[in-house]
Each structure stands twice: as C-alpha cells, then as structure tokens.
Amino acid sequence: MGGLLSYLWGGAPASTEREEVDPATGLSPKERKMVEDAWKLVNQDAKGNGVALFMALFKAYPHYQKAFPSLAKIPLSELATSKLMIAHANTVMYSLTSVIDNLSDPECLQEMLQKIGENHGRRKTGQQPFLDLKGVFIQLLQDKLGKQMTPQAIVAWGKTVDVMYVGIFKGMDITSEDD
Fold first, then answer.
1. Which Gene Ontology MF annotations are present (predicted)?
2. pTM (predicted TM-score)
C-alpha cells in the first residue's frame, strides 16, 4: 500500500524504479557510474596496472606473448620491467581510459573502437585473444578493487567489455573485407 501512496503522491517507490538503459552501451546510468568510478581508481596506477594486465594475460595464455614481435623474445621474468612492455601497456591503458571517458558519447565511442579493431585487424589478431583477455581483465579488476567489484559492478564491466568488443570486432571485419 505504501508503494501505491508514494506513486500517487508524486514518486514511484525505489523498488519499482527502472533506470533507463543506454541502447548503445546497454548500461544504466548507475552501471556507467560504477565503471567510471572503478576506472578512476585503476587509472591511478595506469602504468602498473597495464603491465599487470599483460603479465596476467601472458601467464594465462603464454602463446599470446609471441603475437607481439617486440615482446616475443623477452623472458616472462624480465617482461614486467621491459620498456617495450611498459610502453605498450601504457598505450592500452590510454585507450581504455578513452573508452571509459566516452561511454556517454556512443558515436565517438564506436569510431574509436572501430579504429582499434582496424588496427588489430591489419595485424590479423583475431577475436579469440580479445575474448580471452576479458576474463583476465575482469579478474584483474577484482584483484585490484576488492570489495568495490560487487556482483553488479562485475556485470557492468562485462557489459562494457562486450560493447567494446562489438566495435572492435566490427573494425576487424572491415579490415578483413579489404584483404
């Protein structure tokens, strides 16, 4: 009854309120804020977390290191301090920051993602490394953010990565059509 009275007097009860979901990202405003807030924390150590991401990827999937010509011959034990690795990790973190910063601008977001896809498509990267990276990335976020990575935050990040991959894979497809 209280819910009905609240509705009649000018407001729906919190339990029935629905946030509008952005059709381009699939994120509600609350989910987008979770992602943006979490990323601010991760980005405080962009260099360290970028290196940690690649180290985790190469530990879980050692064959991917060979896909990076400049990193392929560096022993895993030395990779974290390699300036080549740090530079690439920084580039990826800057790209991720640009993606997160543009979640509210779907047109710009899709253009950026498509460009990333085209760049990786020219290198014949394929989709599987990205799909494998998703689990590594979400785990890294959980390790770095601890309790802030609630089940809702994990879902929001999953949606964010999925929307990234739609744009990236579209760019990869365009590049493969040009071949």
1. heme binding; metal ion binding; oxygen binding; oxygen carrier activity
2. 0.85
